[in-house]
Structure formats: C-alpha cells, structure tokens
Write a structure and sequence with these properties.
single chain, globular, 183 residues, mainly alpha
C-alpha cells in the first residue's frame, strides 16, 4: 500500500495528471468560448438558473475552466488551479446529477460545445474520476530532479490519458444510439 501511495506522489505522475487535466479543461473552454450562444443555450437547458442569467453563467464557466486549465500546467500553481477545477467540476457535476434525478436527460451536456452527449450517471462518474485526478495533481509530490526520460514519460502518459478521455466521451455519446438500434 505504501508503494502505491508513493507512486501517486511521484512528480511524473502529478505532472502527467496536471497536464492531462489542463488539456481537457483548455479544450472544453475553447469549445464554449468559440460559440457562446450555443453554450448559453446548453446552460439554459439545465433549468437551474433564471433564463436571463444563463448568458452570465455561460460566460463565467469557461473563464474559470480556462484559468484552472492554465494554472494546472505549472507545478507551482497546481494547487490553485486544482481548487478552481474542483469548484468547477463540483458545480457542473451537481447540475448534471440534479437533472438526471429529475429525469431531464435528453439535453446536450454542453461539456465541449455542442457535443450531442446526453446527461447520464456516466457523466457524474466521469467527473468524479476527473476530481480524483485533480486531487492527485494538486499534490506537491516527492522532491526529485526530473531527467529527460521523465519528460518523455509525462508526454506519453498525457497522450494516453487524453486518448482514454476522448474514447470514453465518444462511448458515452454513442451509448443511447446503440441502445436505440437494439430495440
């Protein structure tokens, strides 16, 4: 058990997780900022804030996402970026869970612009995993000097983790279609 805990505090692991989360958050913010009307409509579809406040919420969320993603890139700022990311993920996960409990699932999640991904418990689980990754990335980690092989490992891990994230999102988007075909 101690070996596993020390693995998660290795700077290669914390930097790989921080960089992966940065990519996920920065790409998500980019999609929301490039088409604010679509994201505002997605926020309005959740029916959690008055309609007149949807554009304001839709303007603030991607800015927080952008800040969190940018700060997570730098180990010295990872704690602050992690706090912003946790706040953001807790907020959006609560919004998804409330609507799933209401049975209001046939709306786009708005996760990355107009994605066609309906609300589901899978999104709640995904965001829970992301929050766990954030908690690990916020650690200061063991102080040791990184060598070139560590940076290659971080780069490879980021590519693999982003690939897993994109694949999981596509599976969650396609799941309702696959179920409809089986009926």
């Amino acid at each position: 058990m101690e070996t596993i805990l020390s693995l998660f505090s290795d700077p290669v692991v914390t930097r790989a997780l921080g960089a992966t989360l940065s990519v996920v958050l920065l790409v998500g913010a980019w999609h929301k900022l490039k088409d604010p009307l679509v994201f505002s409509a997605a926020v309005d579809n959740y029916r959690l804030v008055p309609e007149r406040l949807s554009p304001l919420v839709a303007g603030v969320l991607p800015i927080v996402e952008l800040a969190a993603g940018g700060l997570l890139l730098f180990p010295e700022m990872a704690f602050i970026g992690g706090l912003l990311a946790l706040l953001l993920l807790a907020t959006v996960t609560s919004a998804v869970a409330i609507n799933v409990l209401r049975g209001h699932t046939k709306i786009d999640c708005g996760c990355g612009g107009l994605s066609g991904q309906p609300l589901s418990w899978a999104l709640v689980v995904r965001n829970g995993l992301l929050m766990g990754m954030v908690a690990l990335a916020m650690q200061e980690g063991v102080a040791r000097t990184l060598v070139w092989a560590d940076y290659l490992t971080v780069g490879g891990a980021v590519l693999a983790l982003v690939g897993i994230y994109v694949s999981a999102n596509q599976l969650m988007t396609n799941a309702p279609l696959a179920l409809a075909v089986r009926k």
